[in-house]
Amino acid sequence: MNASRTRWLVLALVVLGFILRLGLALKLGIHEPPGPGSDSQEYDTYAWNVAQGRGFRGMSPDVTDRDHLTAYHPPGTSLVWAGLYGVVGHRHDAVRVLHGLVGAATIALVYLIGCQTFGRPVGLLAAAGFAVWPFSLFYSAELLSEPLGTFWLLAYVAAALEFAARPGAVRAVVAGLLLGLALLTRGNVVLLMPLTLVWAVVQFRRRPRALAWALAIPMVALATVAPWTIRNYRVFGAFVPLSTGAGDVLLGSNNRLVVTDPDYYGYWVFPDELPEYREPLKAPNDELVRDRLESKLAVEWVQNNQDQWWYLLHSKFRRLWTPFLQPRSPRLHRIGTLVAWGPVLVLFALAFVPTGIAWLRRGHPGWLIHLVILSVVLNALVFWGSSRFRYPIEGLCLILAGAAVVGLVQWVGNRRPAPAVSSSAAA
User: Fold this and answer.
1) Which phi and psi (to 5°) does residue 345 adopt?
2) Domain positions in the chain
3) Is 91 left (phi over 0), alpha (psi -120 to 50) or beta?
4) Best CA proximity match to 220, nearest among 245, 197, 191, 201
5) Per-block average pLDDT, block size 10, for the chain (427 residues)?
6) In this structure, are residues 104 and 150 in contact, taking their beta carbons and an 8 Å threshold?
7) Neighbours of 204 (CB within 10 A)
8) Alpha carbon 291 to chain centroid, angstroms
């Protein structure tokens, strides 16, 4: 297939992806407001306050003032929504249309990364998969951080691979800016920062000039985050690089309930639901104090329960990757997840180690994909396993699965015996 036809095919996949995402949003309720007490409501409240010129303020757990300056969530999602609200007003349908467009653009990123790492056939196969990927359709219709966070993360991967092909100052700045935007949108991307340094040093260790620019990528990312960190210092009088919500996740995923109740296998529980923590967490009436208390309690629990470490690690790892949803999940969701994610998981697992080893031996920069996936695994092991944590890397998993499919097809083709030549034809 020539380049012109490929571009038209990718465009068709992008258009199809947008139509499917918009259609699902319409079916589920494109104008529906966020539910009370949800992450969506918090993102939306912060965004509307920013759009009105009132600053990044709203609710956070166990703070009685529901209109205080906050850093409970990283600001990226709400700031994008605020820009949209400033133009069209407080319209949730506009956010869902934006998410549909972002999800469709992510299809093109999946294609680009597939081409950069394995070539056009794998890029097309992965992009086609992501165009109809049910999890992407779902998150595009929701008022959550996943659509934007996934777009920025994959855009960073594509930009970093482009930098590796042609190192230079501009490409390093672009990659660093995109990594910074991913950090500001999804705080758990922070674990990718040290892995990006590893990638830079190993990949460019024999090319000093390229190494210098590669090391600038995480520095630019930190500079992108710096204005928000400075703002938080002015608000709280303390160093808060991204958010005050990490304690919730850390304590909620490392406690007595998650190691005793099968319903919370590898999962988490909101800390206030545990009686022993409820009153101590409400007492400060301050989100920063609460966050630091949660982190302290979580570390103490982990130190005092070393016999549960293995259970925590394997349960979180399995929960992150499993294609089997909990029995209490809707039957259709369980079947859809098994049918969609199950085969991709198997193919991805087949390709993960061999491709990583091959790229490291050849000096190919594509092993950055493996580091991005590893950062999500590490995040799950520290906190908890979740399809929401996994979703941003599912496009990369589709690429590796596509590589496995193409490789298996080529292997079968090479093993097939050549057709016999008839005597008449030989004559």
Assistant:
1) -60, -45
2) 3-410
3) beta
4) 197
5) 88 98 98 96 98 98 97 98 98 98 98 97 97 97 97 98 97 98 96 97 96 98 98 98 96 97 94 96 97 98 98 97 90 92 97 97 97 98 94 98 94 67 33
6) no
7) 21
8) 23
